[in-house]
Amino acid sequence: MSPGRGALLVVGSANLDIAVTTQRLPGPGETVLGDSVVASPGGKGANQAVAAARLGADVIMIGAVGRDDRAEPALELLAAAGVDLTRVARLPEPTGTALIEVDANGENSIIVVSGANAAITPAMIDPAALAGAAVVLGQGEIPADTTLAAARAARDAGTRWVLNLAPVIDIDPEAVTLADPLVVNEHEGAGALALLSVEPPPADDHEALVAALLAAGVRSVALTLGGAGALLGARDGITRVAAPTVEVVDSTGAGDAFTGALAGALAGGADLVAAVRHAVRVGAFAVTRPGTQLSYPSADDPLP
User: Among the residues of the chain, which ranges form H helices?
Assistant: First the structure.
């Protein structure tokens, strides 16, 4: 590894995604006809690991799958991207599964069945993996005590901790305040403030949301705003990063593309502003293609 560069250690989930496309998403109690169904690898941890690895980061993953016929498909693109999977456990629980509905405008709704991801324990946090990591990345799809253990292990090792609090889980606030950055959308940002016992500002005041998170003790914040880009909040102020204009095909996994690209860039030695600018472009690329991991760019793909 070159000077200033280290590995990205992802502690997170791996799923098999079952995606159904339909003209519009059904309402409560409603049945609609679908257009297609596709099974592909997913899970926030795996998505973010693939996004970073495809862009050239050295990525190690700690996670778990089952001993069933969904395990290999769930890991297929991680392996193809070169992610180190030696710390992904094979457990008796079934491989995690996500059921995804995508409408004609690219909007989606998702139900996740955790399976083996719910059995990832703090004991699986490997000190040897931490020793070579420049960044440790966590999300909300594994048990909160394991994510907290990863945050504390990163702190103790002097390694940067990045938390994508998605979905929002009931976790010790320490895992949130250690994040540098905390990566959230506006709904997750409000959830993070609730964990920190802070009243959120009005829903449409994004800068106030970022400022409130910083005031509550979070080290830095990357607030994703979809097609509007992102806000980066740090001790020296708040920076707005615009997103390029693209045609949206499928927004599934775009937030994971952003987070993986951000964490991978930080592990590669980029500063936080440059990493967020890069991540916004990667997220914009991802929405122009269908699927999750299959939509992520490689280092050779031109970004918008």
Answer: 44-54, 71-81, 127-131, 144-157, 173-177, 186-195, 206-215, 254-267, 272-286
